[in-house]
Amino acid sequence: MVVAIAIVRLKDLLAVIMLSGIYGLLSASFFVAMDAVDVAFTEASVGAGISTLLMLVAITMTGRSEHPARHKPVLALIVVFITGILLIYGTLDMPYFGSAQAPVHLHVAPRYINDSMQEIGVPNIVTSVLASYRAFDTFGEVVVIFTAGIGVLALLSVVRRPEDITKIDSLNDLMHAEHLILRIVVKILIPFILLYALYVQFHGDYGPGGGFQAGVIFASAIFLYAMLFGMNTARRVINQSVVQFFAAIGVLLYGSVGVVSLLNGKNFLDYSALSTDPIAGQHLGILLIELGVGLTVASVMVIIFFNFEGRRENSQSLENKNKENKKA
Amino acid sequence: MLMGLYNYWVVVVLMMVGFYIVIAHGNLIKKIVGLSIFQTSVFIFYISMAKVDGGTAPILAEGISQYSNPLPHVLILTAIVVGIATTAVGLALAVRIKEAYGSIEEEEIQKKDNLDC
């Protein structure tokens, strides 16, 4: 909370973004304290890692400082206070914190907790709800993520001519010649991060984890690589069109699991149709759609990052060109 | 016994901080940061509702009968990842606006728009 208020006060956007990273990490630890391990996992990698990074890239392009406000914020403050007081008044009817009798815990949750072991056979209830009971929801969310990836692609992608690439190359070499220690440490770390992402992906049935978390962790390993070894090296390692292909494959894999169960005479995304033994079918279905989720999330994150970086390099090389022109 | 509601108040304060940033600041990047604070406050709201006293994380194990509610966890887990994807779209728009207008301050953009008319 203190961090959030500091964010309001600061004008320097770099500090704001650093604070929002800290804020993400704090809320992740809060989620652990609230027994939401899966959520904490996601928030730690997204809030403290990826979102901070994307915002940093964005401010390198948009400028670092915020102009002081010219109009007085009194009106805004009044609105905020009134809304806040109304909301607090609204909370007076809410059930007490931690109460087991709260309405949320009485309706569908007992069914998930008591029956999911027999019906799905997966110890992690979060995974079984995410991937089986509410699979249609999750499908919608994966499609939203995919659409966001396409949106960023449409907004930021740049077409390069070959002579530009050589210029950008020299720019990159300048930037990444240093940081020897960092590069070696990262080189050692990256395989472990990737391996860990795969573990989170395939162990999500039994422990905390799953496609969303794994995708984000996998993507952050690639970000790390791209940051320290330069975008050109990263582009040589990871072909962008392949990544885009994988993003689509992930969504398709998810959808086609649904269609297969439909063709077998069950409901859309009813995995018991996938195998003669319903539990085995559930296992297979969850594995497949988590794989789809992981693929899409990781590739969309990589697409977003690469496009931001590509845009930045382009504007930098344009600036450099302008400077040269001025000198001449 | 009003202290039993403090989790909601923390959420309300965070939400209002985010809301204030969104309406009172002119800088688009700052607005996006404000939106994400607003978003996190909703996450905290859901997760704190899922907590049950004496419960553990919702992973089935021998000898444990009290679990916290898995449903809000599922909703928020996906919401976080969707949130970062939409934030990225917002940032991309901000970058394009900077390229088109040369600024991401709301007032300057408005001024330029008025000049164009």
Short description:
The complex is a heterodimer of chains A (328) and B (117). By secondary structure, chain A is an all-alpha fold. Chain A has 13 helices and no strands.
Q: How would you spell out the order of helices and strands of chain B?
A: HHHH
Number of helices of chain A: 13
* Number of beta-strand segments of chain B: 0
Q: Can you count the helices of chain B? A: 4
Structural commentary:
The complex is a heterodimer of chains A (328) and B (117). Chain A is built from 13 helices and no strands. With 328 residues, chain A is an all-alpha fold. Chain A folds into two domains: 1-65, no CATH class; 121-327. In chain A, helix 6 (125-133) crosses helix 7 (135-156) and helix 7 runs parallel beside helix 13 (278-327). Chain A is globular. The mean pLDDT of chain A is 78. Chain B has 117 residues and is mainly alpha-helical. Chain B has a domain at 26-49 and 68-117. Helices cover 73% and strands 0% of the residues of chain B. Chain B has four helices and no strands. Chain B has helices spanning 6-24, 28-50, 70-101, 106-116. The mean pLDDT of chain B is 80. At the A-B interface, helix 1, helix 2, helix 3, helix 4 and helix 5 of A face helix 1, helix 2 and helix 3 of B.
Looking at this protein, list some descriptive labels.
heterodimer; A: 328 residues; mainly alpha; 2 domains; 13 helices; 77% helix; 0% strand; B: 117 residues; 4 helices
